[in-house]
């Protein structure tokens, strides 16, 4: 088996951490994996996955393999790989992994190429780098692809652009748009893990600080909610007037980034867009401002502009780079502008990823059954899968909910019954 990981000697520690995460992923472990082991719905299918190599992802890979698939995994971000997990997947679960934490950009794309060499029938993306590389450099593989899945907001934006341009050649399910994904993973997962990453990197107090959140989508809502609960004065910046009003009515201050840049202590971007924090913002930031990103790619912060403004750069602690400007002000960039929750911490808690990866596994099964009937486009997760994941999660939590009575069903289906 070919693979490329940092050190196989880390495998035993990684296995313990995978098993620890598995305990908090009952939907994937008890409900889906058990059925997959019996039915083998993915038998004969090659799955190429470009995802964050974490303990939770490891349990998804195990589930897909138990379903009969050949699984190949590479990292979807150079800093998000957990090296012990990568080693454990190779040594203990015989799953080829091509990922090393801190790999340079060249190695990152070499690893994507390694997965594509296996000629996947289904692609699984977290940011759309695998599918975009396939379309740009390996179009000969397209006839063998049934379909794909995409986990992130950023990736879905890219895929919709591909579909709009007529460049997308096979169907892709936007797992990110499942209600049981973005309402929980994006909000509660990103909210908690982003703060975890900031605290691990800086050990700074959130309470009493001014915390600027750029973007008020579900990820931004989660971050803003969490730092507010920790005692921060939260400012939200937005380009969408509806989201801006929502942030205001949720109790946050709303202003432009140029205004916020003058008073913020912490800055976190979660927009999925490019250069949200730019040169004009760095020029007015306070001495000691801490800047980070929790969007998928490291483009939300204009790092080249910061490099240009700085007369000195020094790494003063893991994941913290100090940029000194010509007037003596210091700006601190966390995790090289990459996903702070995965680079400086461990990513989302297993419990919330349980639902996200349940959607991934069931969407792969759906593509095997229905992919040939779908046009090249971006699709939402079928409603029956989304609701099934919610029902399974409630069941695993020991929660029962009411069912509609026949009278209620009749009432909802009737237009004659009024006041």
TrEMBL record:
Any coiled-coil regions, as ranges: none
Positions annotated to bind NAD(+): 152-154, 186, 215-222, 238, 273, 294-296, 341, 348
GO biological process: L-homocysteine biosynthetic process; one-carbon metabolic process; S-adenosylmethionine cycle
Keywords (A to Z) from UniProt: Cytoplasm, Hydrolase, NAD, One-carbon metabolism
Protein's recorded name: Adenosylhomocysteinase
Functional note: May play a key role in the regulation of the intracellular concentration of adenosylhomocysteine.
Cellular component GO terms, alphabetical: cytosol
Gene Ontology MF, one: adenosylhomocysteinase activity
Catalytic activity: S-adenosyl-L-homocysteine + H2O = L-homocysteine + adenosine
Gene designation per UniProt: ahcY
Similarity field: Belongs to the adenosylhomocysteinase family.
Main location: cytoplasm
Pathway: Amino-acid biosynthesis; L-homocysteine biosynthesis; L-homocysteine from S-adenosyl-L-homocysteine: step 1/1
Cofactor details (free text): Binds 1 NAD(+) per subunit.
